[in-house]
Structures are given as structure tokens and as C-alpha cells.
Design brief:
The protein is mainly α. 81% of the residues lie in helices and 0% in strands.
Length: 85
């Protein structure tokens, strides 16, 4: 179920980002975006797999760097924590 929700999120976020860049409402771009990516995976699956794996590794590295930067900033800010609700 989680995997399906991630795929739906990517399927909606991609067209929305492209639509914002080119000035088109994203609802017109959802179907072409999904069809183009699905056909790319079906036709060029073996060739695309190393590229997608490399991007996944890059994404993990960026995540670790961002978490490290957040930890560094949190350690240097010296803000007192309070649990006021």
C-alpha cells in the first residue's frame, strides 16, 4: 500500500512541477507524464535500471547530508527546548 501511495505521489508531483515551469495546469499533464514514463520503463527497462539505481543512491546521499546539516545546525543554535502545549 505504501508503494502505491509513493507512486501516486510521484505521478502527481511530476506533472505539477512541469506545469508550474511551463505555465500549464498540471491536470493536462498527468496522463502524458504517466504514459511517457510507463512506456520508457517498458521499452528501455534494462537500460534505464542502472540510471535509476544511480539516482536512488544519489538521493540517499543527499538525505544523509541534509540530516547531518540539520544535526549540525541544531547543535550550534543552542536553543532551549520547551514542551509548552
Amino acid at each position: 500500500m505504501h508503494f502505491v501511495s509513493v507512486l501516486v505521489s510521484y505521478g502527481l508531483a511530476g506533472p505539477e512541477a512541469i506545469g508550474n515551469l511551463v505555465g500549464v495546469h498540471y491536470s493536462y499533464l498527468i496522463l502524458p507524464f504517466i504514459v511517457i514514463l510507463a512506456m520508457t520503463v517498458l521499452v528501455f527497462g534494462d537500460a534505464v535500471q542502472p540510471f535509476v539505481s544511480g539516482l536512488t543512491v544519489f538521493k540517499c546521499i543527499i538525505l544523509v547530508v541534509v540530516i547531518g546539516a540539520m544535526g549540525f545546525v541544531a547543535a550550534t543554535v543552542q536553543q532551549v527546548r520547551s514542551d509548552l502545549v
